[in-house]
Amino acid sequence: MLEITRLTLREIELELKEPFRISSGVCRERRVLLVELENADGVTGWGECVAGERPNYSPETVDTAWLAIQRWIAPLVLGRAFEHPSEVYGALGAIRGHHMARAAVEMAAWELASRAQGVSLAELLGGTRERVETGISLGIQEDPAQLAQKAVAARDEGYRRVKLKIAPGMDLAYVEAVRAAVGDDTPLSVDANAAYTPADTEHLRKLDAFGLVMLEQPFDPGDLVRHAVLQRSIQTPICLDESITEPERAADMVVLGSGRIINIKPGRVGGFTAALAIHQVAAEHDIPVWCGGMLESGVGRAHNIALASLPNFQLPGDLSPSRRYWERDIVSPEWTMEDGLVSVPSERPGMGVDIDIDYVASLTARSETFPAGERA
Ligand code: OSB
Ligand code: MG
């Protein structure tokens, strides 16, 4: 039984060690929305919202998520008793959109349930792997030589796959330089974050020459049909990220042939229950999935790693260790990587890391507890 008696929202600010540039903008500092749920026994569970500061990756932002949780999501879970955390997704089904806001609460509910039951989050989700293969996502750099240097360093650090962010005018020459620098044996992929249109089809076909594992999200999220047409005219497998906002979109992708690989970010699709459903649809259709990242703090990372321990996560995830992003993460122990692998903390109840609550308090820009008036 999962009875949620209290929900605390906190917004913290975490400065990235290095700015991260994608086709639609640059992120220097992460505004992170954290959700803490508490049950009647005083057990707490944590979640992290993956929404960014501006609506450049998805329509949601930190501010819209705060509003959605405060106004519509919190009232739907507070005081409710769920038999199992998988019921939370359905309970929030009356809300359209706001997948990231819903996910933050839904995932915190799973974390709370795993702590209350004394099992690891990975185990509660059905994870089977002890270690997960890790890839890196490299932001757009000043020039191809700089990107090539970073790619070589990542390969030498042990990363199992190197992903390059691309944009029109910052694509072929960059990929060519990286491929030449790392050689043919390093798995490479590219991520356009929806920066192209069907008019770029001939141009994108040139990527076929570089033996990429995948081309992630070339077109607008809503363009499932256009992605299907593109997939028929290029060899590089298309992977969808932004397009897959819920399990139904994964099913649509399969029917239409809009891509051959899915990037599952539980925080993008409404949470773990939806992520498990997508994982299932994909497995039934021989579609490999992998776990993407959103520059999460150690909390979101914990959730992603737990999910990535499931069997159909066949490709390395964007699960870089804490030190890649932050001078100091908000969890202990911090996330580490060894030989390109991250260990799943399956021996510990819950997500497997502790929140450094004093550090979180020192980074907090605003916080609010529901039911209103009570303090965390
Ligand atoms: O498209 O996967 C993406 C970061 C912010 C927004 C979108 C994306 C990303 C990443 C970062 O690729 C992956 C990571 O967390 O390391
Ligand atoms: Mg992506």
Task: Please supply descriptive tags for the structure shown above.
single chain; 376 residues; alpha/beta; nine-stranded mixed sheet; five-stranded antiparallel sheet; 13 helices; 24% strand; binds 2-succinylbenzoate; binds magnesium ion
Quick overview:
Helix content is 35%, strand content 24%. The protein has helices at 62-77, 86-91, 99-117, 121-125, 144-157, 172-182, 201-205, 224-233, 247-256, 272-284, 298-307, 322-325, 357-363; strands at 2-22, 25-39, 44-49, 81-82, 131-138, 161-165, 188-191, 214-216, 238-240, 261-264, 289-291, 317-318, 331-332, 341-343, 354-355, 364-370.
Give a verbal description of the structure.
This protein has 376 residues and is an alpha/beta fold. It has two domains: 135 residues, Enolase-like, N-terminal domain (Enolase-like, domain 1), CATH 3.30.390; 220 residues, Enolase-like C-terminal domain (TIM Barrel, Alpha-Beta Barrel). The chain has 13 helices and 16 strands. The strands form three sheets. Strands 5, 6, 7, 8, 9, 10, 11, 12 and 14 form a nine-stranded mixed β-sheet that branches. Strands 1, 2, 3, 4 and 16 form a five-stranded antiparallel β-sheet that branches. It is globular. 52% of the residues are buried. The mean pLDDT is 97. Magnesium ion binds next to loops.
